[in-house]
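Long-time lurker. I teach an intro course on protein structure, and each term I like to show students one example going from raw sequence to a predicted 3D structure in token notation. This year I'd like something fresh instead of my usual example. Would anyone be willing to generate the tokens for the chain below so I can use it in lecture? Attribution to the forum is fine with me.
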Amino acid sequence: MAMSLQVLSVASEVYPIVKTGGLADVAGALPGALKSADVSMKTLMPGYPGVMKTVGEGEIVCSFRDLLGVEADVRAVEVDGLELLVLCAPSLYDRDGGPYLTSYGYDYADNWLRFAALSLAGAKIAQGAIKGYRPDILHAHDWQAALAPVYLAFSRKKTVRTVLTIHNLAFQGNFPPTIFEKLGLPAKAFSIDGVEFFGNVGFLKGGIFASDRVTTVSPTYAREILTEEGGMGLGGLLRQRGDAVCGIVNGIDTKAWDPEHDAMLARTYDRSTIDRRATNRDALLKEMGLAPTDDPMIAIVSRLTWQKGLDVVAEVAEAIVEKGASLVVVGTGDAQIEGAFQKLSVDHRKKIGVRIAYDEGLSHRVQAGADAILIPSRFEPCGLTQLYGLRYGCIPMVSRVGGLADTVIDANYAARHAGCANGVIFEDAEPDSILTAVDRLIEIYRNPKEWRRMQEAAMANDVSWTTSAKLYADLYRDVMKDEGR
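-- Reply from a regular --
Happy to contribute to a lecture. Here you go:
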């Protein structure tokens, strides 16, 4: 049997305790999924107010009298099967806003300190700060934890292997050089072979340089970030890391997202009873105030941002409904894009339904009731929405980028005839591309037999964490064989 591995995960958010995006889903799902691969994972996270309320007191397993000038305790607690180590430092985390932003929507001015402290605590725990616990590997997530591998790399006793996962390269944690002397790193760390990044301190840049392995959340995104355009200033460094960079697709929580047992739906169903989706479709049309229709209902559940390509959808929405389709939009984001969709819903009251909100229950009802889910992202590291769509038989319409390209099989001639098509892929977030995709979708939708086959193919997909967790376990065991860098 393979050796049992101990992994310390360091993350700024963990579902179901605190979530702002896909990072939390991965950090929350991976520990449980790894158990079957004989990997034991503890997760270090900050003690935000909501976290402290959820986890209670816990047991103090170590204390820091001077963690970058701050006193802090680490408390161990188990929540929903997750073994958590919560960094309790009220001066850093006991705040009214969210994990990263004030209640007015601005970045906290000391975010550099809040997450450098999290990283340093992770490095110290990896080196034995908790009596009786010495992980084999430290797995850091995104810029907020990316200094942990840096602290270990510049330590005199780096005995722990390190893995860094990039969930979205657009968020890099770049700060002015004046903070460097407060990070507790040696002077030589402020260099190209360290955290220096165009004269600033780059948390993610440092982590990419210092980690033994760098992963991202899909194989296609792992290739895209090696390019000048996709690399966002870090492409050269990522290319330099060569084989140390790889992509592993995210899974989803198939218990939370299960059309057969989903209490949020008007009617549950499975792959053999797809006809029951009609009840959810009728209920969704009614909930969104839309007219009954024999044409497809296309949905969007997303942050309404430029990255997600939704400025273009707002531009072509009228053309979409002119083709016969209805449009359902659920999400929040840029005020300009929100306003554009709200105006469209007024002008086309029976064809376009808009809900400017983050609504988990409605997200489930949309996936169970809409015919297709439109995701025209300009870049998309992995994406979870298309995986929910596959699980619920809601056909994904996606741009050919990142994880979208890796998880959807386009309904081209060969795939349609082989019966394995499960979605519609278009080239880019441009008006013509999207409208051509809508035409293709409507054509297939009007052939009930083929549409049913496509829904069945979608629902047959394994979108669980099983395969991805095995790939992470293989990566951990691989990195343990590495000679020192």
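Some talking points for your students: The chain has a mean pLDDT of 96. The CA atoms of residues 290 and 349 lie 7 Å apart.
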